[in-house]
Design a protein that fits this description.
Pfam families: Chromate_transp. InterPro entries: Chr_Tranpt_l_chain (IPR014047), Chromate_transpt (IPR003370). It comes from Inquilinus ginsengisoli. It is a multi-pass membrane protein. The protein has one domain. By secondary structure, it is an all-alpha fold. 75% of the residues lie in helices and 0% in strands.
Amino acid sequence: MADAVTRPRGSPLEVLLVFLRLGLTSFGGPIAHLGYFRDAVVVRRRWLDEAAYADLVALCQFLPGPASSQAGMAIGLHRAGLAGALCAWLGFTLPSAAAMILFAYGTGWVGVGGAWLHGLKVVAVAVVAQAVWGMARSLCPDRGRASVAVGAALLALLVPTAFGQVGAILVGGLVGWWLLPAGATGTAGVPLAGDVGRPVAVACLVLFVLLLAGLPLLAAATGSPSLLLFDSFYRTGSLVFGGGHVVLPLLQAELVPPGWVAPDRFLAGYGAAQAVPGPLFTFAAYLGAAAGIGPGGWRGGLLCLGAIFLPSFLLVVGVLPFWEGLRRRGAVQSALRGVNAAVVGLLLAALYTPVWTSAVLAPADFALALVAFLALALWAVPPWLVVLLGAVAAEGLARF
């Protein structure tokens, strides 16, 4: 399978344009984002095969920070090196970050409720369902791996925390190591780390640790408002596992008690973050623009946006070259067969909750989800068009 995949050589501009489109159209949260990524880089452009993509997703589930954004950085790194990783992040992040900064200024917003937003959630059901179906056919083709996937889904549903997700992947890896013999997985011939060598990786890991340990000391010594703000968001991005909504209580504890952001403004921004495409971590851009400490405005927004994503960038670049070497070993490939099946199970669990339970509330929602799935899976309609039509259809049904 690896021979059928495009060599990991492309231009940063190519990566930027692909992820800019994803940043403008990827509604539905981090699990749906992984479905959009798969369609864009596995199905349509064949930058990766299914197993290599699942390897990246599994790795990003282990790392602190936003898993979908980290997967995007890793794909950009694979395709066009360090510049590609940066361009993938820029393209996927800037549209929603710009919207959140504008919302902090209080202009150009149409509201965060309404039927059109619910329609985006319904379309996310179809996107995730397509990703689960496609990945299951490739990564769970036999009874053993299908059983691992179902077991991982059950564990994730019974323990709905980051510990449940990480535990499911660990158990899947152990089962694969013990019971699933190594075979032609298709991953060994697909280099994931691009042209990044281990010296650069080590430098990134060292910088990650130095900033995590040194920023609090430097901020306390200088008393700089900008450094205090940067430290809070860098520390949050370094220590949150599970990404997405898990970041809410951490940011609330950092910003609201000191009075940097008022409680009502905090909750208003969090509500707005649900209505924009791209990563939920762009909530940081809103908070930086609205904070009563630091530069404020668009400068504060960009400062906090860079701070919360910087740990993810350093970890992806620092870990991926070492992961590249490990995944080529026979025993590790056996474990990865189980890990990849567990990843499918995690997607299956997420398809039920929160994707299905928050979107399919009536027969009309189920019908819209079915039509969207048909358009994506059988008619190959571009996801961005399905997203647009789903929002319009939901608004029309609400007015009918």
